[in-house]
Amino acid sequence: MVEVSTSILNANEEEIIKTVYDLETAKTDYFHIDVMDGKFVKNDISEKMRKYTESIKNVSNIPLDVHLMVNNVEEYVKDYLDIGVNCITFHIEAYKNEMEVLKQISYIKQNNCKVGLAINPNTNIERVYEYIPYIHKVLIMTVEPGKGGQELLPQTIEKIANINKFIYENGYEVDIEVDGGINEKTSKQVIESGANILVAGSYIINSEDFEKAIKMIKQK
To answer: Average pLDDT of 57-68?
Structure first.
């Protein structure tokens, strides 16, 4: 089953609660929270996204899907665990040490939260293989992280297919989430390659009909 995680990165701050209600009515499966620290990526929107997360938690039961694009993963993990989010995904590129990655994965799971591992477009997909048995999902960036509204990078399609093949051949139950440049055309490509959770921001938020936009990107 294909699910949609709607990124609220470009949502109007003054209308965030209305946007949340409208997206819930439109049957988004998750709210995608993009957290940037100004170091791992250029933009620093950490305070804004924390406020958004707290606001959503107070008015909606839709699962919160947090994507940490940060250097100090531990600091942000603790903050979002305190809010009570459903899944926290961090970047493999934020760590150089394998044991530190495993330690962070374990810590998140011990706090009754699902965990995902994200990978940038230029990082070899095989770097995440050893962690697949311990995580709930892998997030493949199909654009360079840090900015909304980019076009999907064609070379990332092969990465989706490769991780899907690895997961299938080894019998793992791990979601494949893709983030970046998702619309009614690119969604078909990533779904066919094996992705089952699609992050979409600009395509949905800028549409006149949230429900129609969500249905369009779920279609194969």
So the answer is: 96
